[in-house]
Amino acid sequence: MKWKHLINQKVSTYWIERIQQDTSMFSSLQFLGGISIILAFIPWSWRAKDVAGETVLVTGAGSGIGRLIALRFARLGCRLVLWDVNDKGNEETAKQIKALGAYVKTYKIDLSNRDDIYSVAAKTKEEAGDIDILVNNAGIVTGKKFLECSDNMIQKTFEVNTLAHFWTCKAFLPGMMERNHGHIVTIASSAGYLGVNGLSDYCASKFAAVGFDESMRFELEMMGKEVKTTVICPFYINTGMFDGAKTRWPFILPILEPEDTVNKIVDAVLCNQHIVMLPKSLYFFMALKGVLPCKVLSCVCYYFGVSNVMDNFRGKSTKTD
């Protein structure tokens, strides 16, 4: 598996050196385009890195996508560290991981509390060792119009969906940089690229998470560090978190199934993919956003039901993913 690691390392760093040495922007774009086309025809399994024996920390691991991500990494031979405020759900995830014969440690944590994050992070490093892959998955949603959101809920949305990413990265990124090895995964949302009616606080928090990932990726690249980042921007996933949300054209913008979504997330991490939008039709819509006038974009969102997707939102009593 060593050759796979070398290929990933060369592909991810050589283009930076090439652009720095070449003053021709056109030539640099040609080079990048060529690399992208070549990689598109190489099966992901050939490019996937071997993560067996690595320690993976998943926040929000007590249910939904977090649980499934943890189980997928366990099947790949990883050691798992599970963080969640839901102790019962977290232990159930751990039970399923133990049944697979994998190492697992669980910690109860309040991700809206910075001091708690730093405290549990220190305990995690002491008991489970260095973290190789950090999956910032935990999230909450109010599903209310802006003026219906209480100040406390807006603040908590940002604390869990955005600020927690800063504190977990501050806790574990230095170790990754020292070892020159690691991967930070941000489970964001398509709502981190396009504002949605009825999700003002959630969208703002996910926009921030996407921006944080992008800025951090550039920082790490410019420092020449082999610490990777991946940001996941899915449409709504059928986990209960967005119960009641409906899509007008499901064959274009379907409600995603958790198992298939998690497989695509982990495959992207294994291939060091930077940005993942699910379904793939989102790439087209986000490109349109960059060129369409605002009024035309509003009409497109209305036609495809994006503006009304939250009209029947119910969510679930515990809105953690």
Automatic annotation (TrEMBL):
InterPro entries from the UniProt entry: NAD(P)-bd_dom_sf, SDR_fam
Transmembrane portions of the chain: 26-46, 282-305
Domain of life: Eukaryota
Pfam families per UniProt: adh_short
Keyword Transmembrane: yes
Keyword Isomerase found: no
Enzyme category, top tier: oxidoreductase
Keywords (A to Z) from UniProt: Membrane, NAD, Oxidoreductase, Transmembrane, Transmembrane helix
SUPFAM superfamilies, A to Z: NAD(P)-binding Rossmann-fold domains (SSF51735)
Its EC number(s): 1.1.1.105
GO molecular function: all-trans-retinol dehydrogenase (NAD+) activity
CDD domains found in the cross-reference section: 17beta-HSDXI-like_SDR_c (cd05339)
Protein family (similarity comment): Belongs to the short-chain dehydrogenases/reductases (SDR) family.
Protein name: SDR16C5
Organism, as annotated: Mytilus edulis
Organism lineage string: Eukaryota, Metazoa, Spiralia, Lophotrochozoa, Mollusca
